Amino acid sequence: MKLKIKKDVLLESLNKVSKAISTKNLIPILSGIKFELSSNGLTLTASDNDITIQAFMPKDDNMTIEKEGSIIIQGKYILDIVRKLPDEYINIEVIDELKIIIYTDNSEFNLNGINKNEYPNITLEESKKVVSINNKVFRNIINQTSFATSSDESRPVLTGINFKIVGDVLECNATDSYRLAKKVIKLNKPVEENYNFVVPSKNLIEFNKILDDGDENLELHIFNNKILFKYNNLLFQSRLINGNYPNTDNLWPTDSILTINANLEELYNVIDRASILTSDKEKNVVTFEIAKDTLLVKSSSVEVGRVEEKMKIEKDNDEEMKISFSAKYMMEALRSFTGSTAILIFFGEIKPIIVREKDDDTLSQLVLPIRTY
Amino acid sequence: MKLKIKKDVLLESLNKVSKAISTKNLIPILSGIKFELSSNGLTLTASDNDITIQAFMPKDDNMTIEKEGSIIIQGKYILDIVRKLPDEYINIEVIDELKIIIYTDNSEFNLNGINKNEYPNITLEESKKVVSINNKVFRNIINQTSFATSSDESRPVLTGINFKIVGDVLECNATDSYRLAKKVIKLNKPVEENYNFVVPSKNLIEFNKILDDGDENLELHIFNNKILFKYNNLLFQSRLINGNYPNTDNLWPTDSILTINANLEELYNVIDRASILTSDKEKNVVTFEIAKDTLLVKSSSVEVGRVEEKMKIEKDNDEEMKISFSAKYMMEALRSFTGSTAILIFFGEIKPIIVREKDDDTLSQLVLPIRTY
Lengths: 373, 373
Known about the structure:
Chain A is an alpha+beta fold. Chain A has 6 helices and 26 strands.
């Protein structure tokens, strides 16, 4: 293997695939990045057995391929070396089969490589039936739902985001059983068969970090126990979580008794201040008291003291309301919207609250109340 | 106690004094901030028994004093409340002796306070003999020497910065016995008596964080076992470290055999890259090989591989040199200078290296070599 490649191009791909390298990995070979150079270009692959990331750099003016070949290079060193080299172009050459030389005019690194045959055989196969989603829309799904997943491994299925595809409708749900996030989008074309699968939330969050802001389509290649995402020259594969995702449809209450409209940012800040004296241990409980055109947000802690915040709101009827909930969950629900007007729908003191935004009909958040007496 | 005060003014002082509040403190009262309101203004005090910080806000247009008084308020809550209140002015009132109300138009916080008499009696007395140093010069001393102090508590005196004042010369030394930083500045006027004391490095680093970039003078009030710094309306008191600071004068070698000049930033980067393959455990050892007008920086690790970096330098004679040292210590020494030309003076393979900067004669760094054979 021998090539000359533009530093910035290589660094961008290295940064992406290195997200799959875990320092806690028990399999030493997986701390390496696989370099594969063919006449078409350079492919980098990294994996922690849970996710696999592959980046392909096609042969172009940024690259001079002198000799094809493959080698495994220690991930943390190659990333640090490429990041810190000041040169525009970097040469990488394998000699004596396993000796890697990385060099520029004034720098020369000699690294011990590992034979490519020792790398686990990870297939990144594509499916014939592909679901396409706009990249920005897909990133929004992750940003607006992933926070509601559970971190408790005792019910693994709740640690993932549930994707349900029927016809041209994709519905995503995330819940830790205290709150629920639901995002519904329309696909450009209907799927041939329906899908219902759960992707680990933490893997989607990692994937989101390496996606750019581009407007291209992202392809989902869905298998029984894994999913492959394809975006331009980037492949990201994740395992799926086994098990049946709970039916969340019947969690949404009906027959509301009161709906309020409020400035979203102000509402967020008012709850934030009201929760200053609460503690995580006590689930940051705050209480809403709604009467006339005013919302009072209260909380108290015997040892520390109590808070009372008030703000103007709009109501759809004269109903009054008193309800308590976790400030943290409500704030995370509010923060998932980008618009300026929050809509809160109440169904009773011990019924969940629905949170929406005036100009966004794709996203709904549900926050469970907490009994305080 | 009752006052109305501009939020930004109060927040700035709270941010400063709260640096003295330790979450690990075993004395509960020290998690509080003492508020003392007199007809002259508001004084805030916080302490962790090791350092004490006091900020005074004089009565001016930013403050309406309605009733004098004192109270202790939980530090973490008052800081969070004031930071998150959106209002321009904040009202603070003590009722029923120990109930604190913090309120604005739409927010009201009721906190449980603590009687001021329960706060330890910390005196922040000033000395009659004062040493004055320009604030920027003082901050430079901390930035350019503190990194060289030891973190090993087995020799407490080396965890501090040594200040020696004789006549109008202040000499500051910091060493962990592997490297030594020395800063010498001229005071505006000579002191009446000589001083030699050691201030804990971590306390000076905390103090540095709350000092602004102002050009005013900072006063040092020096006592037997403590030092009080006074800067505008800010007081910062630290304990001094007992024990004799070692005499560092005889550590500086004489009769150099070679001096090189090099671009400081380039030299830093070359050493940084050469140390990529080394580990902290091995003290990040790199080797300089100087011949003709070229510096080679090399390092190697049996398991990982080896690096060779080269750069152009200027030499004062034809002497060649090979010397090994800790890349980390050399990089920290280089980073302490602001100028662009590093001067490295060599005295032999097993003698310390002196690091200076071409346009700065106030600062000298000493880095000990490491035997590699």
